[in-house]
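DM from R.C. (forwarded with permission)

"hey, sorry to bug you on a friday — could you get me a structure for this? deadline for the figure draft is monday and I only need the backbone to look sensible"
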Amino acid sequence: MQSSAYRRLIAVLTLCTLASMPVRACAEGVLIFAAASLKTALDQAAATFEQQTGAGVTISYAATSVLARQIQLGAPADIFISANVDWMDFLEGQNLIDPSSRVDLLGNGLVLIGAAGPSEQAPIGPGFDLPQELGDGYLAMALIDAVPAGIYGKAALQELGLWDDVSDRVAQADNVRAALALVATGAAPLGIVYRSDAVAENRVRVIGTFADGLHPPIIYPAALTPGAAPEARQFLDYLQKDATLTLFKKQGFSLPGG
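My reply, with the result:
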């Protein structure tokens, strides 16, 4: 008979094979499903946690919507960190997270980015000429109807009265890091990503910042799944420590409401 550890490893390996997402590792240990925008900072936090505790951490990154659907279908995550509250609410409504463990972990901001260059920023307001800035190119965004970064970006452009001018010139990517890569590699002249994504990629610069009131609050809730490994609670507690939150803030994140 196969051991439970063996069955769990096969499940994780199958998930990593089938899901088209960057994965830090596929191995036994605490398994975290995390929004793609968290990768740079969360990888650092996980490495420090492993050094301090000896506990193994596996992180699977993708669009929040993709991860939530995978958990719904039975993927064996211990912790889910979402890039918006709606998808966490979705899983909580199906009893697929432990509501007593749920915490609003981080906040973020939304920025317009372009190729690396001078750091001068232009105000992004109703009169911002986004079509002219795009030239003949396309605006890179995460999926506008499913992925939080894309949803926030579309909402901000609609609020500014700019969406109709560019809606047919949007290059939609599976997640926000894929949208970031389109600009970083020169495939798109401009993109809308999180502030933390711009901090993580030195091949782009921030052209302007969208005011927080232009889109729903960007909140990253985190929670354990029912039956999560004991080490998972330890890691979730670790993410809330001051030193860890300072690491996240250095990477462009904020605290919710801050």
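R.C.: lifesaver. The beta strands are 30-35, 57-62, 79-81, 103-107, 110-115, 139-142, 170-173, 190-194, 204-210, 219-224.
me: no worries. The chain has two domains: 4-107+219-250, 110-214.
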